[in-house]
Write a structure and sequence with these properties.
With 126 residues, this protein is of the alpha+beta class. The chain has helices at 4-23, 28-39, 58-73, 98-111, and strands at 43-50, 78-85, 88-95, 118-123. Strand 2 and strand 3 form a beta hairpin. The chain starts with a helix and ends with a strand.
Length: 126
């Protein structure tokens, strides 16, 4: 015989599940679309900015941080990686829509004054 406390522990998750299911009604088609959308690998956009010297200067590092912050603020996508290479600054952003993301990234780079020394590349998911 189960005690009332054990019954409550067993019954409470079931009750919560039922309560949530009623408030979150979703058609089968909507559920399939959501799951497929989340399972589909997202595109990535790589941005390369020519650095002011062969080795990134503190100003270049500050520029990269400000661009990263703008990418986050404007919800361009998920910042996958960023850093420096000889003569370059780079960042890779995982995006929902490459055209929209590229347009927003261009405006961010223009505002930072580096649009004329930057390039974009769309990276296909593996």
């Amino acid at each position: 015989v189960m005690s009332s406390r054990k019954r409550l522990i067993v019954f409470l998750p079931f009750l919560l599940l039922c309560a949530c299911a009623k408030s979150e009604r979703m058609s089968t088609a909507d559920l399939v679309k959501q799951v497929a959308g989340e399972a589909r690998p997202k595109m990535r956009v790589e941005v390369v900015i020519r650095a002011s010297a062969d080795q990134a200067t503190p100003e270049d590092q500050a520029l990269l941080r400000s661009i990263e912050d703008a990418v986050e603020r404007k919800n361009v996508g998920r910042l996958v990686s960023s850093g420096t290479q000889p003569g370059q600054l780079f960042l890779i952003v995982e995006v929902e829509n490459t055209a929209d993301a590229t347009t927003t990234l261009r405006s961010i780079l223009k505002a930072a004054g580096v649009r004329n020394r930057s390039s974009f590349k769309v990276i296909q998911p593996e």
